[in-house]
Amino acid sequence: MNIDSVAKYRNYLLPLMDCISIILGYYLVSVLITDSFLIQPTSTITRNEILISIILAIIIFQIVFRLSKRYTNIVRYENNQDYLLYIVLSVISSLIVSLIEELALNMKNPSIKLNLVVGLVIGMIIIAYHLIIRYMLLSNPSSKRNGDSSKKKKLLIIGGGYSANDIIKTLNSKLRGQYEIIGIIDDNKKRIGYSVAGVRIIGSRNDIIKICEEHDVDEIFFSIVNIDNKNKKEILEICSKTQAKVKVLPSLSELITEENLYHSLRDVGIEDLLGRDPIELDNHNIKSLIEGKIVLVTGAGGSIGSELCRQIMLHNPKQILLLDNYENSLYDIELELKTTHPNNDIRAVVANIREKDRLDKIFEQYRPDIVFHAAAHKHVPLMENNPTEAIKNNVFGTYNLVNCSDSYNVKRFILISTDKAVNPTNIMGATKRLCEMIIQAKNKQSNTEYVAVRFGNVLGSNGSVVPLFKKQLAQGGPLTVTHKEITRFFMTIPEAVALVLQAITYAEGGEIFVLDMGEPVKIYDLAKSLIELSGYTLGEDMEIEITGMRPGEKLYEELLMDEENLEKTKHEKIFITEPMDLTIDDVEEKLDMFRMIVDEETTSKEEIKETMKKCVPTYREPKEVNGE
Question: Has 420 been annotated as catalytic?
């Protein structure tokens, strides 16, 4: 009878095996164990008494086991708690047998000590045969559950720690037959040759490519969670040179506790390829700035705005106002925050920052202490085709908020700016440069402290390249890149927002804070790495299509203009630019040029661009910068 038959007839076989265990237990104790100090010499116990005890035990054990639903257990998934229960149930059953023998059958020879020992022995026999069955089920290559071994994915695991141990146990129990584990990679060479959960450590990172080629590895699981980002990037770059698909565990700071870590494995993301070190913050200073304050966040439903709200709530504001013009995303972040912070005062406000009268009423009603201004039109090609909308929303919307903050005594106003404001080649970037001018000029004549924080692209934000690449991968490609040489600065959304909060603790008013974005990254190289780490071969399974530069797009983004000098702050990733020599009258003169344009709605795009060049001297056409 094979293992499949055993599984099929388990409801009959397990009770039968228990009966055999009872007989064997009594035989071992009554015959083989003689003259024990625990029991009477076996010579005083008759064969009839032993036979009666066995029959009685079979009946009592079956009753107790069935009442406790022991036979509903699936042997394959039993654990130590189940095995302990079998010992307890066996001892209880044996004691019941002993009581019946003495009280009902008036049998004096078999003692309670004898039955107690018998119960322990029977329990151990039951555990022993369960372990044997479990081993046979898990190691049986012909089991239907395991499937055809030739179809197993060949797997290499990177990291020989607790995470790998947990993943291997999950694969061997719940996913057995789906993977053939080739081995483990660990950079500690002293551990090579040792095993984790029965799987040998077969090499270091330098052996990954060779092992993958020799064993035709299908997938790689990166299971190290306590690794610095530089080493993580280096190992993933090695993995990208193989034909294997790579899955990674999140970092310790991201990892949510799971029963097993296998469920936390995810596909490689661009954030894994940046190699950026984690940011250390002075949370005490941030908390002292926000705790007990009324905080207004514009664009609260957007990717940056919503993350600002999440991190602000960690510092216990008195009240947070979520302002957005798009009700769906606003509802989502309101619901999320009310779920995670049910005892805080959270208000969702639907409003358009272009409408000054509406903003006045909001500021008069709530009297915010701090304003984070993240609302903006940010999509470069769309704003090139709709320049008046960019001006209305980005420039005049910011101007309205700046004036409301002054009128209602806001303590601090923070503008979320962008690297596209530096030597801009598009309308969107130029409008954000104008916003920087507005806050620096206004700061000179107001009690409100106006500051801006400038950074580059954030991973996963709405309209960014990351969601687009993931969508294109899922659809089978191709991945689209506008130019093979185009580079961008990248930062994760939580990282950018954390640095924004840290930056404002250094603010005195009038500063433009510049965040250290690390080294610029080629978009083409990111696309190539994502393809390779997803298990595809560039040029065979997946293509990269060069689509051509989009309107207003610049090959290389910058974080600093030529005339700007950087001043260090207490944080190594935050710098301050030299302030512009502008007055509010200078800004008003620039804005008057645009008021006429947005009111007429008939001005051509060319005329708008010419006006922008007068207002933002560093604004250039893309062809002047890209060398086209």
Answer: yes
Which of 329, 413, 333, 323 shows the shortest CA–CA distance to 365? 323
- Residue 409 pLDDT > 90, yes or no? yes
* pLDDT score of 618 more than 80: yes
- Asked if 395 contacts 432 with a C-beta cutoff of 8 angstroms, the reply is no
Give phi and psi for 21, each to the nearest 5: -65, -40
For residues 374 and 299, the answer to whether their CB atoms sit within 8 Å is yes
CATH number at residue 175: 3.40.50.720
Q: What pTM value is reported for the model?
A: 0.63
- Per the structure block, which two tokens stand in for 600? 């007429």
User: Do 89 and 218 fall into the same domain?
Assistant: no
190 assigned to some structural domain? yes
Phi, psi of 510 (to 5 degrees): 95, -5
| CA distance to 61, 73, 118, 188, per residue, from 89 (Å) | 8, 14, 12, 46
CA–CA distance, 589 with 340 (Å, rounded to integer): 46
Name the domain boundary from 113, 139, 165: 139
Active-site residue identified among 245, 293, 420, 590? 420
pLDDT digits (tens, 9 = 90+) for 219-269: 999 988 778 878 888 898 899 889 898 888 765 444 444 444 556 677 776
Taken as a whole, the chain contains a residue count of 628
Is residue 480 included in any domain, yes or no?
no
Q: Using an 8 Å Cβ cutoff, are 277 and 229 in contact?
A: yes
- The domain tally of the chain equals 3
Q: Which amino acid is at 365?
A: Q
φ/ψ of residue 488, rounded to 5: -145, 155
Say if residue 329 is in the same domain as residue 190: no
Does residue 109 share a domain with residue 174?
no
Query: Which amino acid, one-letter code, is at 485?
Result: E
Which among 578, 420, 573, 569 is positioned nearest to 489, based on CA atoms? 420
- Do the Cβ atoms of 493 and 460 come closer than 8 Å? yes
- What is the helix (H) or strand (E) element at residue 607, kind and residue range? helix 605-615
Alpha carbon of residue 425 to chain centroid: 35
Block residue for tokens 């940010």: 378
C-beta atoms surrounding 126 within 10 Å: 25
Could you tell me if 14 and 80 lie in one domain? yes
Euclidean distance between CA atoms 365 and 359, whole angstroms: 10
Judge whether 270 and 495 are in contact, CB under 8 Å.
no
For residue 387, cis peptide bond before it (omega within 30 degrees of 0): no
Residue 205 structural domain: 149-268
Same domain? For 342 and 442 the reply is: yes
Domain annotation covers residue 479: no
pLDDT band for 413, please (50, 70, 90 cuts): very high
CA distances from 317 to 15, 327, 414, 432 (A): 63, 23, 16, 28
Helical H runs in 104-161? 112-139
Please check whether residue 121 lies inside any domain of the structure. Answer: yes
Digit-coded pLDDT (tens) for 292-351: 999 999 999 998 999 999 999 999 999 999 999 999 999 999 999 999 999 999 999 999
Residue type, 10: R
Q: Which residue has the tokens 């610049």?
A: 554
Same domain, 317 and 413: yes
Q: What is the predicted pLDDT for the residue at 399?
A: 97
- 315 and 166 belong to one structural domain: no
Asked whether residue 331 falls in the same domain as residue 202, the answer is no
Highest mean pLDDT among 47-51, 163-167, 309-313: 309-313
Choosing from 268, 293, 308, the residue where a domain stops is: 268
